[in-house]
Specification:
single chain; alpha/beta; TIM Barrel; 8-stranded parallel β-barrel; two-stranded antiparallel ribbon; 11 helices; 10 strands; globular; disordered N terminus
Length: about 290
């Protein structure tokens, strides 16, 4: 046997072994995937508990494994009546980062931004704007977002918008969410994709994130049961619905997603605190 033929046989043998081992290599890489190190909770998920005892509720949530909080204005301001120094001390004590808050971004924005900056928030988020009647109205909303973003930029914060399903419903042949994406300044405006709302509206969350890389830095993680008439009534605990979060979370990171925030608004056979605990358990075991 000449040297050239012997060499070819050796190469072929190695390729054969590689072909056999390749599936096991894939499996090994899957096993090596890291768990999600940090995830947050939108505190609206436990709004009644927050109203009764904000500090005590936040301590309980930290014990569940949440390392990040996203707030909301529950009628006492974005810090629920706490002074920024008091809130910051609490967060330091329980080891949680306050990343953002939903807020009325069109009212007293400078004052809210000062509070948010003092406790280390990165975002103030418009949680709801309502469906508009025309494309021009959506463009006007985009300009209002830019203006709010400019104000927040002066405080070292950034503006973001949280969608519902209405921005994923066609209007005059265009998608309102696209209008917002295309008419806002990326230097001033980010977006928080509520994956549940895009999903029940018929849009794949991951595909939409990939369509606008770098624009979605935060997301709401909540699951949807496979069947349901009203889009508002399909929310279920994470891991019990049809949204493939392990795949979405892993792949969305390469498009710029940084913050994964649990939100639970529907409670069947459970309580808000118990749901928060069970959702934390799910995410803490998720390999991405």
């Amino acid at each position: 046997m000449n040297k050239q033929r012997r060499k070819l046989l050796q190469i072929g043998g190695m390729l054969g072994v590689g072909a056999v081992l390749f599936p096991y290599d894939i499996a090994a890489r899957a096993l090596d995937r890291a768990k999600l190190s940090k995830f947050g909770l939108q505190l609206y998920s436990v709004k009644e508990e927050m109203a009764n005892d904000a500090a005590g509720t936040m301590r309980k949530l930290a014990q569940f494994g949440y390392k990040q909080f996203e707030g909301f204005d529950g009628g006492k301001g974005i810090l629920w009546g706490m002074h920024p120094a008091e809130c910051k001390s609490l967060l330091s004590d329980i080891g949680v980062e306050f990343i953002s808050s939903h807020a009325d971004v069109f009212k007293n924005l400078d004052a809210q931004a000062e509070q948010a900056a003092e406790v280390g928030m990165k975002y103030l988020i418009c949680p709801y704007i309502g469906a508009q009647k025309s494309i021009d109205e959506w463009k006007n909303i985009a300009e209002r977002f830019n203006k709010a973003g400019k104000t927040l930029q002066s405080h070292g914060l950034k503006f973001a918008y949280h969608n519902h399903d209405y921005t994923f419903k066609m209007l005059d042949g265009q998608l309102p969410q696209d209008i917002l994406m295309e008419n806002t300044d990326p230097e001033l405006v980010d977006f928080e994709l509520d994956m549940y709302w895009s999903h029940v509206a018929g849009y794949d969350p991951l595909e939409y994130i990939a369509k606008f890389p770098g624009r979605f830095k935060l997301c709401h993680v909540k699951d949807a049961e496979p069947e349901g008439g009203n889009a508002h009534d399909r929310g279920v605990l994470l891991g019990t619905g049809e949204i493939p979060y392990a795949d979405i979370i892993r792949k969305s990171k390469k498009y710029g997603m940084e913050y994964f925030v649990v939100e639970q608004e529907r409670f069947v056979g459970t309580t808000p605190l118990k749901a928060a605990e069970e959702n934390a358990v799910y995410l803490s075991k998720l390999k991405v």
